[in-house]
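Protein modeling request. Please complete all fields; requests missing the sequence field cannot be processed.
Requester role: graduate student
Desired output: 3D structure, token encoding
Chains: 1
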Amino acid sequence: MLIYVVAMVITILFLIDMLSMRVLLIFMLCAFLGFSYVFPDKFEGFEIGKGDIKNIEKGREAFGLLLMAFVFGLFALGKKLVK
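Delivered output (83 residues):
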């Protein structure tokens, strides 16, 4: 749950232009490392009932972190292009 609060705070700080490029890149890297750490040994998709629930939940969390890394990367790219 804390990771979603962090993502929200980073997004708000980006929107009010109080976030440096370095911080964005660090959080992007952390989210990507989190993705590779959480990703299950056996990916069984996202649908409940189609495999082991633990693998499905780990897959969902991992791809949520990957999505966060992508969004933080877009924030960094936007920050670089605006300057």
